[in-house]
Design brief:
The chain is an alpha+beta fold. It has helices at 4-45, 47-54, 56-59, 70-81, 140-149, 164-168, 182-205, 225-252, 258-269, 318-327, 389-401, 408-435, 449-454, 457-473, 475-496, and strands spanning 86-91, 100-105, 120-124, 131-136, 158-162, 177-181, 279-283, 302-304, 335-337, 342-344, 347-349, 352-356, 367-372, 378-383, 511-513, 519-521. The chain folds into three domains: 1-30 and 156-271 and 388-526, no CATH class; 46-149, Roll (Nuclear Transport Factor 2, Chain: A), CATH 3.10.450; 276-387, no CATH class. This is PepSY domain-containing protein.
Length: 526
Amino acid sequence: MASPVTSKRRGDSAVLRRMWRLHFWVALFTAPVLVVLSLSGLVILYTGPLDSLLNRSLVHVSEGPHTIPLDRQIAVAQQQLGPDYTFDAVTPPGSPDRSTRVDFLAPGALSYPAAESDLTQVFVDPYTGRYLGRRDALSGLVGFANNVHRMFGNDGPQVNLPSLGHLIDSEAYPDATIPVGIGNLWIELTACWILVLLASGIYLWWPRAIESAKPMFRVRWSKGGRLRWRDVHALTGVVIAVILVCYILSGLTWSRYWGENWRAFSATVTPSSEVEAASTPAQLGDYDRLGRRIAWAATGEAIPESTPPGPMAATLTFADIDLIAKSENMVPGYAIIPPSDSTDGGETIHGSYAVVNAWPQRLSEQRTLYLNQFTGETITNATAEHSGALGTATSFGIDMHMGNQFGVLTRIMATAACLGIFVMIGTGLAMWWKRRPAGKTGVPGPASPATRADTPARAKVAIAVTAVVVGVIYPVFGVSLLLVLAVEALLDARRANRSDGEATGVSVTDTIEDSDGDEVPVGALH
């Protein structure tokens, strides 16, 4: 009978063996998406400098003695596109050397959930009124990166999935399903498995008795070969793991499926403060176009109603609203969304102007100013403080994700995380290449019967409970996990029917480090 010490070492080595196999296969599945997200994320992170460099003729102007009225600039932009294009918003210059941007929706443009509207952006010189040019929001390097990073969002093929919001409150969420773009759903699924990748990687890094020589926070450069790459891989992964976990969790909050369900859950558990004014049927989220994002927590805000002071009241000009926005200290670069009127029972419901601070932003800059279209009176001043606790926390996470919350520091962290991903993937490939036997792929096969028998029951229970909890929180992951387990069961059944003489087990020898830092086969511990 084996001693307790020997049994523990065999149990630890069995868990290591199986965790290493999980880590390998999940890495193989998620690595391509991680590369795509990192490359596109770096471009998005530096949107401002890149846009200024690549589109200088559109965004930069020479400062003049005075500007022409904002409404005339909008008219110039409209003339360039024709009446079929719908005026959507205007962004006055954020600084004296910048142009005015006027956004339009193309004829027949579909809105979410059918698809996502790609804005047509027209640029006008605010000093001369000269037309500078136009572009689609998703054109160029930055636009392409945004499109790829969201895997084309809700454009293209879709699937309809159950809505948690409908189960919680069918009146607030009348649709029983949520149409989700397949590409975006794939990103959501992969993001969940990246969490598994990080968790298994941290487990493999964690020091234990059977790997006493394995360092925690240093690289054994003198050892060379696989050990050196292993140390670089582990150290890089541990250093950026917390950042990556935060990025994955915050990114999931605005995925098309889980993000919408999270929005419904957070709005129910910690609702936002209600505006003390009559509202129109429109919401701020109706204006969440590609190319002009709106803060996550502000999406559900209802556009307030404007009460006219008399029957002949005239709507204020955009120049008037711009002056009010400046006097209210809105952050330069804000967008002005025109009022949208509607009819209910034969009566006209007048919308209000919405002045929205540019997104992405710091949480302290999250602000929407709703102004009476006739008087310019502030109906409500919606900030992050009006959001519920979960909505505020989610917005904070997204602001961190976008590299804005703490300015340069956040961008440095985000850049380090993206570059760290490239290091981890490169060193992982190097380890696989050096470890694989000559003429073989070197991929891990199924655990042997001995490894299965040595796996402690407590480890199986802990992993099973964790998998169930994560699968319930992230249903897409849960379904994919059940599918993986079903495939594994089928493969196990096929292997059980093979002849006893056919080899099973792994295609490479799994090893751990002894007290001298040398590698020995796991089987040597049995």
